[in-house]
């Protein structure tokens, strides 16, 4: 993208009543953002959804002056700018109709060959939620996933911290510009996040962390990943909004169950009860539902079959069944081994990591 086109796309973001969907429509119709501003008013009015208010606003030169100031900030801070119709823009986010026209990034983010999981939840995380985040991310580490969250108190920052602890990429989606960090208490984690991951936002440096910005930010958390996991949530909360957005994008939504009396499990339990989310108790279940293949995912260390497998009794039972029966879907494995599916999923993941078995399309497994 040329500097001139970036300037005009920035200016387009400042026009009242033009959101990401309308901006993409205008760019597609006129072939560039620069052409949008130079198009004749009578032609703009012929575009579906474009009225007098927008057509008149596009003739306001103040938007270009504001865009020039933001360009200087981008250049000074050496920010990456991803635009929806060019390489580099996150593939999953490109699929979202309301994905941002421009996404600003800072750090060392690489989406190549990595599965992506968003983890969200209450700002008032309990010891139960902390323990779950710690174990889940540690167990997922061999698959080298990118962990996405919102840098907020509670579940968000726990997800980032555990990703850092396990040397995984983590992406923090901000509800303001890249000239500040909110909350300020989390500034101490930024260096580690930037070293192996980064910060992303569609807000300018002039934007403040206002309530409506967090709701807008949630679509990026949901849109970047294959699935969104809600660890803990009260009956109402921003994480449930993120889950709803993920569902509207056709992405998987997962929720961690809790006791019916636990205040910060009510939201998760309601998601599961209303069938808006799949119940998740372990990393293995995420691997199972997303059909992640440990033999194809770019891991930190190659996974090779061990000469002597370290299988427990139940894993050995599964191994022997597959060895004698050949390729089998997980439902048949459950019947043949008289074992519940949720337990089998955990065992199969461990066996994959040891190189004992491999998954095939359709949740079918075989011995290597």
Describe the structure.
This protein is 45% helix and 13% strand. Helix 8 runs parallel beside helix 9 and helix 14 packs across helix 17 (341-353). The termini are far apart. The longest helix has 16 residues, at 62-77. It has 17 helices and twelve strands. By secondary structure, the protein is α/β, with parallel strands linked by helices. The radius of gyration is 23 Å and the shape is elongated. The protein folds into three domains: 3-70, 5' to 3' exonuclease, C-terminal subdomain (DNA polymerase, domain 1, Orthogonal Bundle); 107-290, Rossmann fold (3-Layer(aba) Sandwich); 313-367, Arc Repressor Mutant, subunit A (Orthogonal Bundle), CATH 1.10.10. It has a nine-stranded mixed sheet with strand order 1-2-6-5-4-3-7-8-9, sandwiched between helices. A three-stranded antiparallel sheet has the order 10-12-11. Mean pLDDT is 92; it is low at 297-307.
Secondary-structure element pattern, one letter each: HHHHHHEHEEHEHEHEHEHEHEHHEHHEE
Strand content: 5-15%
Mean pLDDT: 92
**Helicity level, as a percent range?**
40-55%
CATH class of the largest domain: Alpha Beta
Number of strands: 12
Head-to-tail CA distance between termini? 47 Å
Number of domains: 3
Number of H/I helices: 17
| Unreliably modeled segments | 297-307
Set out the fold topology.
Elements: H1 3-13, H2 20-30, H3 33-38, H4 41-44, H5 52-57, H6 62-77, E1 80-83, H7 91-94, E2 102-107, E3 116-120, H8 127-140, E4 146-149, H9 155-165, E5 170-173, H10 190-195, E6 197-201, H11 211-224, E7 227-230, H12 238-248, E8 252-255, H13 266-273, E9 278-279, H14 283-290, H15 313-325, E10 328-329, H16 330-337, H17 341-353, E11 357-360, E12 364-367
Parallel strand pairs: 3-4, 3-7, 4-5, 5-6, 7-8, 8-9
Antiparallel strand pairs: 1-2, 2-6, 10-12, 11-12
Helix pairs in contact: 1-6, 8-9, 11-12, 14-17, 15-17
């Amino acid at each position: 993208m040329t500097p001139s086109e970036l300037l005009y796309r920035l200016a387009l973001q400042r026009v009242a009543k033009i959101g990401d969907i309308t901006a993409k429509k205008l760019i597609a119709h006129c072939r560039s953002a620069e052409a949008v501003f130079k198009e004749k008013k009578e032609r703009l009015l012929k575009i579906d959804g474009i009225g007098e208010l927008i057509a008149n606003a596009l003739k306001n030169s103040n938007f270009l002056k504001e865009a020039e100031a933001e360009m200087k900030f981008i250049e000074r801070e050496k920010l990456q700018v991803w635009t929806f119709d060019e390489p580099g823009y996150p593939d999953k986010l490109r699929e979202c109709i309301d994905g941002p026209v421009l996404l600003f990034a800072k750090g060392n983010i690489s989406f190549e060959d990595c599965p992506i999981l968003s983890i969200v939840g209450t700002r008032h995380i309990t010891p139960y939620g902390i323990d779950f985040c710690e174990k889940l991310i540690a167990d997922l580490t061999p698959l080298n996933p990118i962990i996405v969250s919102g840098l907020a108190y509670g579940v968000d920052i726990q997800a980032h911290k555990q990703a850092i602890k396990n040397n995984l990429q983590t992406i923090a989606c901000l509800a303001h510009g890249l000239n500040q960090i909110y909350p300020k208490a989390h500034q101490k984690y930024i260096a580690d996040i930037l070293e192996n991951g980064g910060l992303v936002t569609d807000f300018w440096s002039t934007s403040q962390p206002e309530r409506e910005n967090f709701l807008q930010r949630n679509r990026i958390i949901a849109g970047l990943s294959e699935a969104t996991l809600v660890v803990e949530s009260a009956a109402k909360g921003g994480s449930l909004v993120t889950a709803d957005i993920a569902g509207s994008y056709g992405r998987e939504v997962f929720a961690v169950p809790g006791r019916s009396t636990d205040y910060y499990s009510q939201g998760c339990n309601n998601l599961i009860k209303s069938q808006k989310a799949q119940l998740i108790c372990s990393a293995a279940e995420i691997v199972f539902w997303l059909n992640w293949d440990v033999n194809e995912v770019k891991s930190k260390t190659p996974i090779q079959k061990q000469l002597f497998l370290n299988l427990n009794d139940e894993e050995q039972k599964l191994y022997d069944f597959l060895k004698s029966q050949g390729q089998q879907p997980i439902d048949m494995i459950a019947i043949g081994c008289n074992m519940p599916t949720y337990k089998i999923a955990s065992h199969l993941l461990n066996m994959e990591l040891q190189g004992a078995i491999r998954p095939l399309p359709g949740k079918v497994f075989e011995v290597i």
